[in-house]
Amino acid sequence: MLATTKSKLTMLTMLTMLLVLSCSAFATEGWHFTKGAKKDPNKVFHLKWPGEFRDDITQDQAVDSIKLTAKQQHQAKVWDLSKKQEQRYVALMQNKSGSYYKKRPLSPVEVLGINARTDQEREYYAMLAAQQESQRIAKELAYDNTFRQSYIKLVNQKNLPVVRDFNTRQYSPYFYKPVDLKPNDQLVFFVKQKDVVDPVTISLLNSLKKIKNLQLNIYFVDKNVSKQQIFTWADHHYIPQKMVKDKLITLNFGYDKFQNLVIKDKRTPLLLRIRGDKTTRVDMGRF
Fold this sequence. Notes:
By secondary structure, the chain is α/β, with parallel strands linked by helices. It is built from ten helices and five strands; from the N terminus they run ααααααβαβααβαββ. The protein has two domains: 42-163, no CATH class; 186-286, Glutaredoxin (3-Layer(aba) Sandwich). 46% of the residues lie in helices and 9% in strands. It has a five-stranded mixed beta sheet. A hairpin with a 2-residue loop joins strand 4 (270-275) and strand 5. Helix 3 (83-92) crosses helix 5 (108-114) and helix 5 runs antiparallel to helix 6 (119-158).
């Protein structure tokens, strides 16, 4: 038991010594900046980066001796930069910044701000960029407001409609016709009692009311359907009795007729249009 206790004490002592050494190592590696805070011009940002920022300007670059072209001198005036600031920007764009920012929409002021050497320099370029950006936005908002006022004035002067007139008839549900029908056409409609055909019957009934001498012949293809079942079906689908009496609509047993019908993909509901001596199958998917 005594040996075990001594071992535990020895382990605890070693862990304590390692902790002290590691803290000392962190202190010397730059994790605490109290001692050298006054020397570090970017101390605020080293909570994320333990070390001084390294300037991208290399020793072989003589920044002050860079001769600015007429285009570069003009660029300095555009962005409110001094000669030295423009020279530094030109030098930076010859280094990493040229690879990082050449194809990105960054202004010279922003590139200089990113590559600032001190907190004060960074604040200067940030304020300069903020002033330039705020002026740009103010100009755009002022123009946009003036444009909208001018457009309203023009509309009132010329009495222009907000939306021009256009033909809405083609978008009306009453304009849509699932089947082309003419006077004297005959329709042959094969159905089963359980078929869902309400959209078809409603459309065909409307056509019967509008088109002269149009006839609808309904054939029930159920094998053992009764006359009473046919009358019940007609009543549920609002088939007018007067149209049946006038023979504009006929209700028929159709099992044998449907079985003898030679047609591809034969299934109910099936609608055929007879015009003269030509019979055409109607696309049921259009109803």
